[in-house]
Automatic annotation (TrEMBL):
<protein>
    <submittedName>
        <fullName>Cof-type HAD-IIB family hydrolase</fullName>
    </submittedName>
</protein>
<dbReference type="InterPro" id="IPR006379">
    <property type="entry name" value="HAD-SF_hydro_IIB"/>
</dbReference>
<keyword id="KW-0378">Hydrolase</keyword>
<dbReference type="InterPro" id="IPR036412">
    <property type="entry name" value="HAD-like_sf"/>
</dbReference>
<dbReference type="InterPro" id="IPR023214">
    <property type="entry name" value="HAD_sf"/>
</dbReference>
<dbReference type="InterPro" id="IPR000150">
    <property type="entry name" value="Cof"/>
</dbReference>
<dbReference type="Pfam" id="PF08282">
    <property type="entry name" value="Hydrolase_3"/>
</dbReference>
<dbReference type="GO" id="GO:0016787">
    <property type="term" value="F:hydrolase activity"/>
</dbReference>
Length: 263
């Protein structure tokens, strides 16, 4: 086995566009685990809707969730590290979405809170296996927030992203998918969390492999000794990676593991 730690993005990478874990990919990931690599899901999802994917793989262990804002122990359902944001810092983003009539959710490490829902958002949550909880908008925002996520159409999010890029604020916003913008702590990223985990394990950077497909994966792709982008990645993500593999619709993770992890 060429790598001791293998970080895998979930959506658009490990899963097909239909959110399916194919048998070929499942077996390849399990084979990498059998050969001695620690498999770490490294995702923009929260722990609650990342856990079913880990269960489907038949694995357990540490997961990097919320784009690196919360690292959790899947077996104990325990937060190992989180980058919290002050509720006051997201008020501006929340009010913007309310004025624009755009759907958003507010996340602690293990909770996803919403203040309303549209049919489109309801279908999106179903596809991602998420079960948001309706909160009373008149209540104060909870402490321990790690992420604020805006959901909408591509053109709408392109416009929002361009506008938010002109704002001065202490957080970061990142496009985590065509239909999502995540707002979180400035220091939170998959790359930072993966670096912390590798150091904790005593694993050299050269022994880390990461596979991803989107802009929120760039940090982990550039940190890893081998960063692999699947073929369905945007060009900027491909440029950040060391090598390319097949798309998520063509069992790209399996091919990458077979070609680079134990060849």
């Amino acid at each position: 086995m060429n790598y001791d730690l293998i970080a895998l993005d979930i959506d658009g990478t490990l899963l097909t566009d239909g959110h399916v874990l194919t048998p070929v990919v499942r077996e390849a990931v399990r084979e990498a685990h059998r050969r001695g690599a620690e498999i770490v899901l490294c995702t923009g999802r929260g722990p609650v809707n990342a856990l079913p994917v880990l269960d489907e793989l038949g694995l357990a262990g540490t997961m990097i969730t919320h784009n690196g804002a919360a690292t959790v122990d899947s077996a104990r359902r325990e937060v190992l590290h989180q980058y919290s944001i002050d509720p006051a810092e997201i008020v501006r983003f929340r009010e913007y979405c309310l004025r624009a009539g755009m759907h958003f959710d507010i996340n602690t490490p293990f909770e996803m809170l919403i203040e309303g829902i549209t049919p489109e958002a309801e279908e999106m949550y179903r596809l991602y296996g998420a079960s948001p909880v309706l909160r009373d908008p008149s209540e104060p925002l909870p402490e321990g927030l790690v992420k604020f996520t805006l959901f909408g159409g591509i053109a709408d999010l392109d416009r929002v992203e361009a506008e938010w890029n002109t704002w001065s604020h202490g957080l970061q916003h990142i496009r985590s998918g065509d239909y999502f913008i995540d707002v979180q702590h400035r220091d939170a990223s998959k790359g930072t969390a993966l670096r912390q985990l590798a150091q904790l394990r005593g694993i050299d950077q050269s022994r880390v492999m990461a596979i991803g497909n989107y802009f929120n994966d760039v940090g982990m792709l550039t940190f890893a000794g081998l960063g692999v982008a699947v073929a369905n990645s945007p060009e900027a993500v491909k440029s950040a990676a060391d090598v390319l593999t097949r798309s998520n619709e063509e069992d790209g993770v399996a091919h990458a593991l077979q070609e680079f992890a134990w060849s």
